[in-house]
Each structure stands twice: as structure tokens, then as C-alpha cells.
């Protein structure tokens, strides 16, 4: 991760890198201005979590890997923040679990859809869905409902990082098993998820891939057991506790 000129020994290196990537995403037309606000919100929670993957988030990432490996048609949904922060990592995860990648924007414009698809291809994606837009998630108004019929429309399991709460609810109501990556355990998206991963997407996506690689040869019973043992309410509660009661190490800045 040395795509910018930041001292890697800076105590807030990861946070600075994230800001730089989001800023770059806005400049490249991938990320919306609202994406900057979402990033700021996320950073606050991450700071309170100690900017690390807490054990319940690691359990959730393992359950997510198991769920993706068991899925018939998994899809990873990509918005402007995801494209800016983890393009290559998203492609690596998709390859590890055999998932489709679909661009899915709250503020949908043809330019931004195309820019994100190109950016993902530059980072190794062979096929990017979302541009056809011939499907619809029931219960949402026109633009926000648009998906590809053979992508998210046909998916049984969807990974929706940093998703808007309404859409997360509508996807769950449409019968999709939802894996949500969101630093706010109280957001409607995290509340709706079958598997909420309360972690920074920068850490969560590579972590799901690592678990998927580890579980690649696991049999169906093992994968089902991992999912059954995962308790989403307990994971949300553990994250909320960590945020509310966490004893932050004194910053060395
Ligand atoms: P909801 O409607 O689900 O309650 P929201 O629509 O208000 O939430 P947004 O303001 O759209 O949520 O923000 C997106 C969410 O993404 C926020 O909950 C924020 O914590 C989270 N987020 C932002 N950056 C990251 C990141 N890098 N990794 C994980 N989550 C993030």
C-alpha cells in the first residue's frame, strides 16, 4: 500500500491513505461528494474501534467467507467509495469465491457508472455488471432500484459495503442474504444484515478473502456450521460495546 507519498510509520498512516484514496476517487469521478461525508462518518467509528479488526468482526468475516463459498450466485456490490478504497482487493475476493462484481450507485449517472467499471477493469476485473440496468429491486423508487437482472437481480448472496439503509432493507426484503460491511453497528444496513461486518472496508475485504482461501477445501457441513454458529445480534452488540466502552490506547501523535 504505497500508492501515495505518505510515511508508512506515521501513526495514522492507514487513515491518511484512506483519505487520500477517497479524495483521488472524487477527482477521478468515481466517488460522489456525499461519499466524502460517508467517509468522515466511517472514520469516527473506526477511531473509536481503535482502527483495528475486533474479534467479532473477524468472526463475521469468516462467516461471510463461508456464506459466499456456499452461495449459488454471489455478487459483490461496488459503489464510489468501494471503488476508490479497495478496487484490487474487491477483484481478488470475487475471484476467490467465484462472485460477480456489480456497480450499484445511490447517485446513479452514466458517467460515474462507466468510470467505476473502467477503474475496476484497470484493477483486474474481467467482467463488471451494473451497466445494463434491466432489473429492479422491489420497493424502491426508480433510480435507486436499478440493478442488472442477471447480477444482483438473480443473486442469492450479496455483499453490500457502505450501503444506504433503505436499499439494504429492500435487498433483504427481496430475499437476498446480505453481508454488510459498515463501521456503524447501529446503521440500518448493519441492522438488516444476516452477516454484519463492523470493520473498515480496507481491512474487511482482504480479511474475507483470507478466510475464503483458508476455507477453500472445507466441506459443506463445515461451512454451514460456521454460518450457524455466527450470531449477528451478538456481533452488533460486541461492536457497539467496543465503540461505547473501548479503552483507547493513548495516541502517540
Ligand atoms: P443508514 O441509513 O444505514 O443508517 P446512512 O445511509 O446514513 O446509514 P451513509 O451516511 O450513507 O449511511 O454512510 C455510509 C455508512 O458507511 C456509514 O454508516 C459509515 O459508517 C460507513 N462507512 C464509511 N466509510 C467506511 C469504511 N471505510 N469502511 C466501512 N464503513 C464505512
Write the layout of secondary structure elements.
Layout (H helix, E strand, L loop, with lengths): L12 H15 L5 H16 L6 H16 L3 E5 L1 H6 L1 H11 L2 E4 L6 H13 L12 E2 L5 H4 E2 L9 E5 L3 H9 L3 E5 L6 H5 L2 E3 L3 H14 L5 H10 L2 H14 L8
Helix pairs in contact: 1-2, 3-10, 3-11, 3-12, 5-10
Bound molecules: adenosine-5'-triphosphate.
CATH superfamily: Phosphopantoate/pantothenate synthetase
Largest sheet: 5 strands, parallel
Ligand list: adenosine-5'-triphosphate
Overall radius of gyration: 17 Å
Low-confidence spans: pLDDT under 50, at least 5 residues? none
How many helices? The count is 12
CATH class: Alpha Beta
Oligomer: single chain
Give the tally of structural domains. Answer: 1
Relative strand content = 5-15%
Identify the overall geometry: globular
CATH topology assignment? Rossmann fold
* Total beta strand runs: 7
End-to-end Cα distance: 22 Å
Strand order of the largest sheet: 2-1-5-6-7
Helix content: 40-55%
Give the helix/strand class: alpha/beta
Summarize the structure in words.
The structure is a single chain. The chain has twelve helices and seven strands. With 253 residues, the chain is an alpha/beta fold. The protein has a single domain, classed as Rossmann fold. It has a five-stranded parallel β-sheet with strand order 2-1-5-6-7, with helices on both faces. Strand 5 (157-161), helix 8 and strand 6 (177-181) form a beta-alpha-beta unit. Adenosine-5'-triphosphate binds next to helix 2 and helix 9.
Amino acid at each position: 500500500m504505497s500508492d501515495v507519498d505518505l510515511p508508512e510509520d506515521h501513526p495514522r498512516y492507514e487513515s491518511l491513505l484512506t483519505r487520500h484514496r477517497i479524495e483521488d476517487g472524487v477527482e477521478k469521478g468515481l466517488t460522489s461528494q456525499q461519499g466524502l461525508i460517508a467517509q468522515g462518518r466511517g472514520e469516527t467509528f473506526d477511531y473509536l474501534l481503535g482502527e483495528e479488526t475486533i474479534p467479532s468482526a473477524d468472526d463475521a468475516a469468516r462467516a461471510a467467507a463461508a456464506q459466499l463459498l456456499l452461495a449459488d450466485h454471489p455478487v459483490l456490490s461496488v459503489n464510489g467509495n468501494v471503488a476508490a478504497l479497495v478496487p484490487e482487493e474487491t477483484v481478488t475476493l470475487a475471484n476467490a469465491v467465484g462472485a460477480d462484481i456489480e456497480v450499484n450507485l445511490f447517485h446513479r449517472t452514466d458517467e460515474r457508472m462507466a468510470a467505476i467499471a473502467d477503474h475496476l477493469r484497470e484493477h483486474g476485473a474481467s467482467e463488471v455488471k451494473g451497466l445494463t440496468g434491466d432489473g429492479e429491486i422491489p420497493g424502491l423508487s426508480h433510480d435507486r432500484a436499478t440493478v442488472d437482472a442477471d447480477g444482483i437481480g438473480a443473486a442469492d448472496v450479496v455483499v453490500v459495503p457502505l450501503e444506504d439503509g433503505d436499499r439494504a432493507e429492500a435487498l433483504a426484503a427481496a430475499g437476498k442474504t446480505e453481508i454488510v460491511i459498515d463501521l456503524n453497528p447501529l446503521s440500518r444496513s448493519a441492522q438488516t444484515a444476516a452477516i454484519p461486518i463492523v470493520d473498515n472496508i480496507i481491512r474487511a475485504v482482504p480479511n474475507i478473502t483470507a478466510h475464503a482461501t483458508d476455507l477453500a477445501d472445507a466441506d459443506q457441513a463445515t461451512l454451514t456450521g460456521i454460518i450457524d454458529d455466527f450470531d449477528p445480534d451478538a456481533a452488533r452488540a460486541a461492536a457497539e460495546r467496543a465503540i461505547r466502552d473501548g479503552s483507547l490506547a493513548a495516541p502517540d501523535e
